UniProtKB/TrEMBL annotation:
UniProt cross-references to InterPro entries, sorted A to Z: 5_3_exoribonuclease, Xrn1_N
Keyword field contains Cell wall biogenesis/degradation: no
Keyword Transmembrane part of the UniProt annotation: no
Keywords associated with the record: Exonuclease, Hydrolase, Nuclease
Region (Disordered): 123-144
Superkingdom of the organism of origin: Eukaryota
GO cellular component: nucleus
Protein name: XRN 5'-3' exonuclease N-terminus protein
Every Xrn1 N-terminal domain range: 1-230
Length: 230
């Protein structure tokens, strides 16, 4: 869910908790856990809400390039767990509905303002050459708006993403030597629960297994500040 401005407050109050890592300074890890929703939000629209790519295919390339970079940097030895948000509990679902409604309403208002601006610019053009050039305004550009509501369980966008993700993992397991000893766990939007909670449940189950051992080194990557609480 995230906690607004918590990470910023914590970093300003205790700056030494943050440490820049390098490939040489990074410790070895057995298991790597990735909250996929954070990666999707960052690669699709960033913090501005605008589209970062001219096409969906370009966005997928960016998503899996970022994913490959994180995995190759951490280089887990045993498990790779990729989890996305599934259907939330009822109490959280009510909050999500309100938040997504506001996001959709804001997106519609932004689209209306852009259309008004486009029509106003066309009215100011007198010659046919300028009017012809204005027709290209309707084409998608990197500055367009990305509907972040599609990054939700049950959408076609998430179903397509996990089809791509499954193919990516199968390809890596077959072709990449660094993946040959890895066990990959995918927990998609069809599995109930938020991604970070599913990850924590996996860690708790692994810790309670006597065959797994308690000396497993875990690395958890996500953008929600509530991961600190978990």
């Amino acid at each position: 869910m995230g906690i607004g401005r918590f990470y910023r407050w914590l970093s300003e109050r205790y700056p030494l908790i943050n440490e820049k890592i390098t490939q040489t300074s990074l410790p070895e890890f057995d298991n790597l856990y990735l909250d996929m929703n954070g990666i999707l939000h960052t690669c699709s629209h960033g913090n501005s809400g605008g589209m970062l790519h001219t096409s969906e295919d370009a966005m997928w390339v960016d998503v899996f390039a970022a994913l490959d970079l994180i995995i190759s940097t951490v280089n887990p030895k045993k498990f790779l767990v990729l989890a996305a948000d599934g259907v939330a509990p009822r109490a959280k679902m009510n909050q999500q509905r309100a938040r997504r409604y506001r996001a959709a309403k804001d997106a519609a208002e932004l689209a209306r303002q852009k259309e008004e601006h486009r029509l106003l610019k066309m009215q100011r053009k007198q010659d046919k050459a300028a009017a012809k050039q204005e027709k290209n305004l309707s084409a998608p550009t990197p500055g367009g708006h990305f509907d972040s509501n599609c990054i939700s369980p049950g959408t076609e966008f998430m179903a397509k993403f996990f089809r791509h993700l499954r193919f990516f993992c199968e390809k890596k397991l077959n072709e990449d030597a660094r993946w040959k000893d890895l066990k990959v766990v995918l927990s998609g939007p069809d599995v109930p629960g938020e991604g970070e909670h599913k990850i924590m449940q996996f860690i708790r189950c692994a810790k309670s297994d006597p065959h797994t051992g308690r000396n497993v080194r875990h690395c958890l990557y996500g953008l929600d500040a509530d991961l600190i609480m978990l």
